[in-house]
Amino acid sequence: MASALGSVVLSEEKLKTLIHRAKQWALLYGVQMRKAEDPSNPATVDFAPMTLFPSLLPRAIFEEAKSLQIHFQRLMHRAAHDHAFLVNCFKTVIQVDEFTRKMWEIYLEVQKQGLVQPLSLGLFRNDFMMDTKKARFGKNPSHEVPDGLELKQIEFNAIASSFGGLICGQLPVHRQTLASAGVEVKDGQLPENKPARGLAAGLLKAWEHYNVKNAVILFLVSQVERNSQDQVWLECQIFEQNPAVHVVFATFQDLIQKGTLNEDRKLFLEYEEIAVIYFRYGYVPNNYTTEKDYNIRLTMELSRAIKCPSIHYQLVGCKKVQQELARPGVLEHFIQDPSIVSRIRATFAGQYSLDMDSEGNKAVEMAISSPSNYVLKPQREGGGNNLYGEEMKNYLIKIRNSEERQAYILMERIHPWQQKNHLLKLGMDPSLQNVVSEIGIYGVCLGSADQEICNVQVGHLLRTKSSSDNEGGIVAGFATVDTPLLVD
């Protein structure tokens, strides 16, 4: 089978023992989450969903995804600072999508009152899959890596790009499972991966540019958070790199009750000045339960604190921006190097507008007639939002003549390469399954409209799920954390 196991056969008893040990190693190395049934209790931590073995990833695919990261970040940075481009992107979406309209209104108010903090910090993750539409399989496709796999972008995550901490412990877990199964790997097949280190360095660089010695870094979080361990990874890395910098955790409610903005637009939480706001919350509608939540978000955006992300950085993570960037000639507006344009464009799957015009009408009918070839995406980050197949078809039939369709984009469906692996999830019996993987590349970008201070790639996240699952979120219960085993 096409997996790190190769031809190795494990007895049922040895496999059972290895799975048990892998779960223990995951807890030891910090690959852990709070249990879904008791997410507010820090004492109920268990192993995070994970694969038993690494999954194969062609080295050329991996290297291209990594090398493109700084170019994607520069593209999104420039797009975020192009007001006319953003207006064109969101002019129809905000008519029908209330949450996006609320974010857009905050953006406009910041533009109106003026930026007192020109710098924005992005801790981004760019997600890709390996498409098989043009792949060439050998005589035994279940044992071989096909030629012609294509790197295709799924989405660009601009806010709360998670698992950069937790994934740091997955590599040592997989090294042990491979060794225990008797699988030998060559030097360089298991690439080192410490994204938490680079992400923390990005937060510290922003803190340094704020240039107030006693100011703190604020992690904006939810009241109840299953994935709190991932945030603690970053907090610990900040301490390791600069023990003098303090991290505080707060919710919208904390800031509503104890936050103040002074005349100089410095933001305080009680008596502590905030240098950097790192958003791990505030990216979906149900994060905003009252108008006070939107108001405090505006207050944060108007402050001198460096936002990660700023409101305009968050907006460029919307699917409508992804679709507009795929239009002919748009990349050239932001990037002058034709070779970079060509490489970025090669990762784009088909993207189609659903505006109320002939182009949108054509896209709707195209999807209804061939629902297996497309996916319907709203303007959201996080898993569990997309529509596929017959569900998508029936929904499009329902809204085909309604302006409501403008809240979505249509995307060509990727047909990812399948392998086999064991998926380990709490409360579920592990079994050998057909799986597909998604490779995400982390990066840090710090700059203003006319200055690029930092633009680096800092690590990766491989997420693997059953081939029968459409969605891919880990917290949502679909995907598992994984490690790439590079093959030439």
TrEMBL record:
ATP binds at residues 155, 319, 377-386, 388, 411-414, 438, 465, 471. Its cofactor is Mg(2+). Mg(2+) binds at E155, N157, E381. InterPro entries: Glutathione_synthase, Glutathione_synthase_a-hlx, Glutathione_synthase_C_euk, Glutathione_synthase_N_euk, GSH-S_sub-bd_sf, GSH_synth_subst-bd, PreATP-grasp_dom_sf. Keywords: ATP-binding, Glutathione biosynthesis, Ligase, Magnesium, Metal-binding, Nucleotide-binding. Residues 215-316 form the Glutathione synthase substrate-binding domain. Pathway: Sulfur metabolism; glutathione biosynthesis; glutathione from L-cysteine and L-glutamate: step 2/2. Its EC number is 6.3.2.3. GO terms for molecular function: ATP binding; glutathione binding; glutathione synthase activity; magnesium ion binding. It comes from the Eukaryota. Substrate binds at R125, Q231, R463. Binds 1 Mg(2+) ion per subunit. Pfam families: GSH_synth_ATP (PF03917), GSH_synthase (PF03199). One of its GO terms (cellular component) is cytosol. Belongs to the eukaryotic GSH synthase family. Catalyzes the production of glutathione from gamma-glutamylcysteine and glycine in an ATP-dependent manner. Glutathione (gamma-glutamylcysteinylglycine, GSH) is the most abundant intracellular thiol in living aerobic cells and is required for numerous processes including the protection of cells against oxidative damage, amino acid transport, the detoxification of foreign compounds, the maintenance of protein sulfhydryl groups in a reduced state and acts as a cofactor for a number of enzymes. Participates in ophthalmate biosynthesis in hepatocytes. PANTHER family: GLUTATHIONE SYNTHETASE. Homodimer. This is Glutathione synthetase. It comes from Potamilus streckersoni.
